[in-house]
Amino acid sequence: MAKKPVLVVMAAGMGSRYGGLKQIDPVGSCGEAILDYSLYDAYEAGFETAVIIIKEAIRQDFMDTVGKRLEKCPMEIRYAYQEQDKMLPAGVTVPEARGAKPWGTGHAVLCATEEIDGAPFAVVNADDYYGKDAYRTIFNALNGREDTDMAEFCMVGYLLGNTVTDHGSVARGVCDVDDKGYLTNIVERLRIEKYEKGIHFTEDGETWVDLAPDTLVSMNMFGFTPSLLRSLAERFPEFLEKEVPQNPAKKEYLLPTIVNNLLHEGKARLQVLSSADRWYGVTYAADKPMVVAALKAMADEGKYPVGLWK
Questions:
Q1: How far apart, in whole angstroms, are the C-alpha atoms of residue 22 and residue 286?
Q2: Fold of the domain spanning 6-300
């Protein structure tokens, strides 16, 4: 019998563009962070267990704020820690040029393997508001799902125009989807920006390519079976050996890249799901007022209580 889906929340990012720990920054009327709203929506959707990935360096600050509030959350909360030296093969060390930068989203999920404990799981970012419908959609897609010879994954996609900011660049997984609703290609574009004529991206800072506002993008709301964890573990040593030397300071082990490789190797397929909800996020500190206003409006409409964890 398949285990119930688990929610995995990636909260270990450094938030360099934001200028602080956006994982714990309050946006709700009673001091809640976006993460609180994510867990509230996930619990309503059917998730009973959440694994929150943080770093040891922010552990105390996190536990004193979000962690303290979550003592009243009805979900089972587990913690995983993404540290640079965790899951490294024997004899491999962190390059000095790396500084404190994490290895990326693929490594974050890999660090949560033990806490996921063989269940199907959804992955989300701690600083993204996905909406109630998105959690219902991905929970229903994952519930009862088990590993098969062809790995069956899923994701909730969003329109690019609804996920960019007026305050700088964003990173998004740009998706191609076939007429049956399955992903055929996903490419992580690390610098997407709005400009006077629309939206464009660059790889080198010099050449820019336009993207349509209705381009489908991934916001790292994925649904996986446990086979993904095995793939992450198998491919991580090759990433460290072959890719990191190209750019030791910045190269990242990214979920969209790994998923794309599995698709093109014929080892997985990924169903693209849609949500009626609008995405909100705080890539930059200047994004915060809009998120605060949106959540207040939803509370005024009765979608959230005043004080999530009573």
A1: 12
A2: Spore Coat Polysaccharide Biosynthesis Protein SpsA; Chain A (3.90.550)
